[in-house]
Design a protein that fits this description.
Elements (H helix, E strand, L loop, with lengths): L2 H26 L5 E5 L6 H17 L3 E5 L6 H8 L7 E6 H10 L7 H4 E16 L8 H10 L5 E4 L5 H13 L4 E4 L3 H9 L5 E5 H4 L9 E5 L25 E9 L4 H14 L3 H9 L3 E2 L4 H22 L5
Parallel strand pairs: 1-2, 1-3, 5-6, 5-7
Antiparallel strand pairs: 3-9, 4-7, 4-8, 4-9, 4-10
Length: about 325
């Protein structure tokens, strides 16, 4: 047997060994505790969604799955931690939309590149923003709201939970589509925003669905529409802004699972299957409903394309509306 033949057989054996080892790694994964980084403080929506997910994965895998809260900089601190972690499947990111899509359009410099530094696993859930008004405002639907805003340019305010979030993007996109002149009134969180809207201190608000849902039947607010292109599964009677004249408007708060780029594809595939299974568990779906979110459970490829489209969308709206953080 020639030297070349021996070398060729050795190379083939090495390749086969690597393939078998990769498969074995995926079958045995995980063999040690896994951490899920939540890039927000305890008690927020991402944390509340992540904890039951971690518990279910721990049951399934027979390994400890720990939530690690690394809040700060609109989710970017925690996302950076994951981006710079070893790509071995033992550090996962439970992300919201800001740190993976929206912030790309708002911040000129980030410590990571969402498209380059992460391998998306699955889009897990989507929740809309709600357009609501104080009952004293003489409007019953979106078209009447737009008509009144055109009649009273610069007089109507819309409250949000802060500058640069999905609520703010929705309001400025509404202005771009219709040319209405409504004034942005940013608050420090959804709680103060809701209190002032219910108290009649601001005319309208773009509010997270779980914040406003408990008060829909109170008579202190009037809900006009949701910001997603599809109606909410939890509140199917509420029309969308898209069907109410704001064609193409589609803004959501969403959650997904990602890992660092370079994570073995076999582990990525296993995580994707297990992540989709999470979205089918009644307890998890109930928690999603509490957050006003509809379960999704996408493939990795679908989530990658979704992220690309979200980044492109937000870049366009932020540029056209000239949205600045300061």
């Amino acid at each position: 047997m020639g030297i070349a033949s021996i070398a060729g057989r050795a190379a083939a054996a090495a390749l086969l060994g690597a393939i078998l080892a990769a498969g074995a790694n995926a079958q045995s994964y995980p063999v040690k505790p896994v951490r899920i980084v939540v890039p927000y403080p305890p008690g927020g929506g991402t944390d509340l969604l992540g904890r039951p997910m971690a518990a279910k994965l721990s049951e399934k895998w027979g390994q400890s799955v720990v939530i690690e809260n690394r809040g700060g900089a609109s989710g970017m601190v925690g996302a950076e931690v994951v981006a710079k972690s070893a790509p071995d499947g033992y550090t996962l990111l439970l992300s919201a939309s800001a740190e993976i899509a929206l912030n790309v359009a708002l911040y000129p410099k980030m410590a990571y590149d969402p498209e380059r530094d992460f391998n998306p696993i699955s889009l897990l859930a989507i929740s809309p923003v709600v357009l609501a008004v104080h009952p004293s405002l003489p409007v019953r639907n979106v078209r009447e709201f737009v008509a009144l805003a055109k009649k009273r340019p610069g007089e109507l305010g819309y409250a949000t939970a802060g500058t640069g979030g999905p609520h703010h993007i929705t309001g400025e996109w509404m202005k771009l589509i219709t040319g209405i002149n409504i004034i942005h009134v940013p608050y420090k969180g959804g709680g103060p925003q809701l209190v002032d809207l219910m108290g009649g201190h601001v005319h309208s608000g773009l509010i997270a669905l779980p914040v406003v849902a408990p008060h829909m039947k109170s008579g202190k607010i009037r809900v006009l529409a949701v910001s997603t292109v599809k109606r909410s599964l939890s509140f199917p009677d509420i029309p969308t802004l898209d069907e109410s004249g704001f064609k193409g408007l589609d803004v959501s708060q969403w959650w997904g699972m990602l890992v660092p780029t370079g994570t073995p594809k076999e582990i990525v595939a296993k995580l994707q299957v297990d992540a989709v299974e999470l979205t089918k568990i009644p307890e998890i779906r109930s928690r999603m409903a509490d957050l006003g979110a509809d379960p999704v459970g996408s493939t990795s490829a679908q989530f990658s394309e979704f992220i690309r489209s979200e980044i492109a969308k937000y870049r366009r709206i932020v540029k056209e509306a000239n949205i600045k953080l300061n």
